[in-house]
Specification:
Elements: E1 9-16, H1 23-40, H2 43-52, E2 56-61, H3 64-77, E3 81-85, E4 97-106, H4 107-114
Parallel strand pairs: 1-2
Antiparallel strand pairs: 1-4, 3-4
Helix pairs in contact: 3-4
Length: about 120
C-alpha cells in the first residue's frame, strides 16, 4: 500500500551521533526536541501540521557544532527551533546538548536547511 499524501508541513528532529546515549535516552531527547519546537511555533503552523498528521523526520548530526549551525540557519529563516540541553540526571553530564527540534514549518523551508543530513 502506498501513501500519496503530500505534506505541506513537517517537523525535523536532529540528534547528535557523537554522544553515547542508550536508545531510550535518545528517544527521550528527540521527544523533548519535538515538544519544545512545537511550543515555539505559531498557531497557523501548529494547526496545519496537526491537521495533516504531524509528519516528523529524525536526522543525524555529527556533533554539537552542527546543531548550532542548523539552529542559526533556522533562526535566520524564522523557523521555530529548540536546542535541547540534558539535565544530567541519568546518562549524560549536565548541560550536554543532545538534539535540535525544528518546526513545524513548511516542508520546503525545512528542506532548504536539512536536506543534506542523513536519516537516523
Amino acid at each position: 500500500m502506498t501513501d500519496d499524501r503530500v505534506f505541506a508541513w513537517k517537523q525535523c528532529l536532529v540528534v547528535r551521533t557523537d554522544v553515547k546515549m542508550s536508545c531510550g535516552k535518545m528517544c527521550a531527547q528527540v521527544a523533548h526536541a519535538a515538544v519544545s519546537a512545537f511550543q515555539r511555533a505559531g498557531e497557523e503552523a501548529q494547526e496545519s501540521w496537526l491537521s495533516e498528521g504531524q509528519k516528523k523526520v529524525v536526522l543525524k548530526a555529527r556533533d554539537e557544532r552542527t546543531l548550532h549551525e542548523v539552529r542559526m540557519l533556522a533562526d535566520a529563516r524564522g523557523i521555530p527551533a529548540a536546542l535541547i540541553e540534558d539535565a544530567g540526571m541519568t546518562e549524560l553530564p549536565p548541560g550536554t546538548i543532545t538534539a535540535l527540534g525544528l518546526g513545524p514549518a513548511r516542508t520546503e523551508e525545512l528542506d532548504r536547511i536539512t536536506s543534506s543530513y542523513p536519516l537516523l
